[in-house]
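Feature request disguised as a bug report, sorry. It would help if multi-protein outputs had a clear separator. Right now it looks like this:
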Amino acid sequence: MIVTHLTLSDFRNYRSLDIDLAPGSNLFVGSNGQGKTNLVESLGYLSTLGSHRVSSDQAMIRQGQDSAIIRARLAFGEREILAEVQLNRASANRAQVNRVAIKTRELPRYFSSVIFAPEDLALVRGEPSGRRRFLDELLVLRAPRMSGVLADYERVLKQRNTLLKSARASGVRESQLSTLDIWDDRLVSLGTELIVARSALVAELAPEVASAYEAVAGQDHSAALSTYLSILASSAGSDDDEQDAAATATGAIAQDFVADAFRAALARLRRTELDRGLTLVGPHRDDLVLSLNGMPARGYASHGESWSFALALKLASAVVLRRESSVGDPVLVLDDVFAELDESRRGRLAAAVGDFEQVLITAAVFDDVPEELAAHVVRIRAGEVIEDAG
């Protein structure tokens, strides 16, 4: 898939932007704060309905304006479509494909991208919530229906936690326990689907991550992935640094096994959950475990190793998406990445992304980017294109 044209209206610092993009590498150059990342952020929003920088859509609407528009012309094979979304301050966002209104959540069906940015170092060094979000966003890109599963799980989890808090505050009543059983069944059903999907995804990602890490770092540090499952842990509510090794799984997991383990964990912990007013097990408490040479990457990996691992996760994601896509490669975005890499890693990264259909790169310094990735150069200043050297 290729983005052939991008239009922005009142998005971030862009009052108005119209720009043609080319197949292969597109390099956006400009000083910090000029709008390079804003430009690629807009395309990331089209594929994930979120930003890799902020949690609120409101921050992406230009100051003083009521709405912002992102419009992209996409080409794959002989087909071309126009996808657009309008972000609104005071009402629901709206989306269109080929000028026909669609539900906003359907946009990822039409466009796929993978963004790597400095913030992604948190995938290695940060909290489990970021790694869960990484897996879930990839699940939705592969199967958009999973967005509904995730939303339903969060809704059931919230309702169950409300019931637990109410029972703790008022004293447990028989009617509350019977209602809790109903929520347990729904939580297990949705949570099992999510756990099974995540574990299958991790199993598919693992060999690609190992290969991508070696390609970027230039050496084999046995980069590996596994899944920490709270439903298998011997204790609940422990610190993330004290995860039970027995609860760590490698490879895909059978649905019946997960459902039985989930129910058993909820039954075992019911008294504790009622005391604490909180659901202590489930996919909302799980983690993606990253390791190098058999040691946890979080806390042990050096800065360079952490960067290489984070890059490997995103490159592996792109490989997995392209493998089953009917519309070609995802658009690969490298946001301000090369400044953090030494010369040898820059060259290896350039080689690793060279065969993708389209790569979008941002850089503050032109010379930071290998020459082979500078085929189409666009210079940005204060939210405007000042030079298109394509």
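(second protein starts here, but nothing in the output says so)
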Amino acid sequence: MRTQSLERILLAAAALLLAAGIAVPAFHGSLIAARLLRCIAIGLLAVFAARRRTLTPWIFVAMVAGAELGFDAPHFAVSLRVFSDIFLRLIKTIVAPLIFATLVTGIAGHGDIKGVGRIGIKSLIYFEVVTTLALVVGLIAINLSQAGRGLTLPPPPAAIETTQLAPPATHWQEFLLHVFPENIAKSVAEGQILQVAVFAVFFGIALAGLSPSRRAPVLHLCEGLSEVMFRFTNIVMYFAPIGVGAAMAYTVGHMGLGVLVNLGKLLLTLYGALVAFGLVVLLPAALLFRVPVRRFLSAVAEPATIAFATSTSEAALPRAMECMEALGVPRRIVSFVIPAGYSFNLDGSALYLSAASIFVAQVAGIHLSLGQQIMMLATLMLTSKGVAGVPRAVLVVLFATASTFGLPSEPIFVLLGIDALADMARTTVNVVGNCLASVVVAKWEGEFGSEPISEQVLEGVSD
């Protein structure tokens, strides 16, 4: 009890000092005093994190410290991007072998091919229902807020090369073809997660069809690779606070906090809509399938924090898989559902696309009827799939949607200024939504908590 009371005091004192440090300049107080108050608050947060002895508080402290550094020393903060890039590169080396090893082990290790197909069908049904609801929530939110009304169109920046943002082909045939790898090494090098997962599924099915004597050596190799990659993840996660702090420092230092002034209404609309989506869609889904909500929120806290700070789902994927397995989701379900969600269950991105598309029309002064908005929603259901590995993926889809419906591209360039801040929130919802999907499918299959948890996973989530 004493420990908990002291931790609450530390958090309360840090929050008060941080609020005071933000408020002092607003009342024409000393900037040095305000900076000192904020630094003391960060120090108290660091003491709190040291007492908890887990990574999650340290990641939160790094986010706050990075934001402070980006605000006080933007030029220096921008130079710290290399540390966030190092963290992301280390994470990207984990993703492909981890997905391959866990999927192959899950399929060939159990030998239940019908079970894998059943999991796939249930996952896709859940993905499509939830993603459609995300698009609807975004559509309703932007129509209520009218965030684009009254904004003057700026000329397109000459520095932006529109050829780099050219929309990809959106025909269903080309998307379907893109799902299947032509060269697994190329898929791994390009970070095409869905292609790696498809290759792993076929490899696992082929391995399961061999005799036990021939299957055993390859299966043991994949099981060993899976355990090694989870241990690799645990080691890389010790660098997470530095990488996350550097990412936050770069974001604030590069963009500045004043970016909220011009497009704050759109950001508030997005954040409010994402919260509403969590309350009216994700929470009811969790209650419907009897998901232990408190335990789930505790398990998803760390990968969600990483996703928010880095704006990259890949950075949170290995930890998300570990945390969901530790929660009680069997590895074969985790390794199938979460990677598949990268292309089929981008809830946060789908919601933002819906809101941003109508925002573009509002800025341009173009009135879209309800029927046209529904058609746009149906189009986004297709164009939002399979773009997780594309740089500036959401902006690419926006350009594709704008050209389809005859909307001008200039308002999309306005969104470049706040894309990083919007990406933090939508990526967090993407990660939380995929984690919840894995638990829902496990509950749907009646296999939640049915398998013992690996020692490597337990060691990782307890750090």
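Even a blank line would do. Unrelated, but nice: Confidence is low (pLDDT under 50) at residues 154-170.
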